[in-house]
Amino acid sequence: MAKIYKKKDLLFFVSQAINDCGWNIIYLNDEHPFKVKIFNQNNNFLVKIIIYNITHGGGYKRAANEYRIQFKEPSIEYETGFLTLILGYYDILQVFAGFDISKHLGTPGYSSSFQIKEETLEKASINGFSACDKGNNEIAVAFRPDFFVEYVSNLEVLHTFGESRTDLSIFQNVLENEIVPNDELLQQISTPRQKTLQTISKAQRDNSFRSRVLRAYNYKCAFSGIQLKLVDAAHIVPVNYEGSTDETSNGIALSPNYHKAYDKGLITFNESYQILFNDNEIQKLKNMNLTGGLKLFLKNTRPIIDVPPALSDRPNVAYIKTANRLRGW
């Protein structure tokens, strides 16, 4: 049975999801409905959050696979300057569900509830994102916490997928089968939804790569051993290079400082997994009097990378050679 949380506990799960997406959150008020600002270096949103626990529908004549939130606010209205989220959280699968505010404006009926299918929640848990066709041009969207910011960023367009059975079918097919949408596929759906489909599909691939790499390295930086939820999944062959892939063997878990140092060519590793420092780059830093912390950085760096237990997850030798050539080694 799903655990029932208090509203502020649900807000904590929202905050945790936003932080895990690499964004920051500021509370503008701490009473439900909550108001927050979420932001990173490039974007920010003011968000009003209405959130409830997702529970089994139960009751007379309700389908066995029907889940719902029980809505208890006196009215549903847009608020100027804010994106309004109507959310549910399902503890068993640790997924959120988002409902379309435009279909529920005004005063809700007595004991009003918003429904979503169990299979939609399950697919979101597996694929990251899923949509439930509710009829009347309305969809509910289920998503994992690592897709929270993608949901917010694409909120208004996402819920319009319910207006076209064709667009919704393509959207579901892309997500369930991890299809990379090409130009031919994109031309089959409405223009405003093409960018959203591309964005969500890319996020799905990125998140899949990230989760696989971090699991492979036990959420530890391969260069230093640090965990503390401070570790990124870095591509060995840079992602913008034609030969790059999202295979786990083209990834390595690195804390942010090592990730930047690796991408800038200050540090690398060879085919024997030995960690190397770029003496030329270090000398340049010395010439600019920018070597503060260098001794500690060197001290905290392992002599060889901490490799995953599974051979198939370890850095591919061909990728290592290509990456070192591209980074000037």
Distance between the termini: 55 Å
Beta fraction of the residues? 15-25%
Helix and strand composition category: alpha+beta
DSSP helix fraction? 25-40%
Task: Present the secondary structure layout.
Layout: H1 7-20, E1 24-29, E2 34-39, E3 44-53, E4 55-56, E5 66-70, E6 83-90, E7 95-99, E8 113-117, H2 118-127, E9 129-135, E10 138-143, H3 148-153, H4 155-158, H5 165-177, H6 183-186, H7 191-216, E11 232-235, E12 251-254, H8 256-263, E13 267-269, E14 275-277, H9 279-287, H10 294-299, H11 317-326
Parallel strand pairs: 3-6
Antiparallel strand pairs: 1-2, 2-3, 4-5, 5-8, 6-7, 7-10, 9-10, 11-12, 13-14
Short description:
With 329 residues, this protein is an alpha+beta fold. It is 33% helix and 22% strand. It has helices at residues 7-20, 118-127, 148-153, 155-158, 165-177, 183-186, 191-216, 256-263, 279-287, 294-299, 317-326; strands spanning 24-29, 34-39, 44-53, 55-56, 66-70, 83-90, 95-99, 113-117, 129-135, 138-143, 232-235, 251-254, 267-269, 275-277.
Q: Can you walk through the features of this model?
A:
The structure is a single chain. With 329 residues, the protein is α+β, with helices and mostly antiparallel strands. The protein folds into 2 domains: 7-208, no CATH class; 232-326, no CATH class. Helix content is 33%, strand content 22%. It has 11 helices and 14 strands. The strands form 4 sheets. It has a 7-stranded mixed sheet with strand order 1-2-3-6-7-10-9. A 3-stranded antiparallel sheet has the order 4-5-8. A hairpin with a 2-residue loop joins strand 9 and strand 10 (138-143). Helix 5 packs parallel to helix 7. The longest helix has 26 residues, at 191-216. It is elongated.
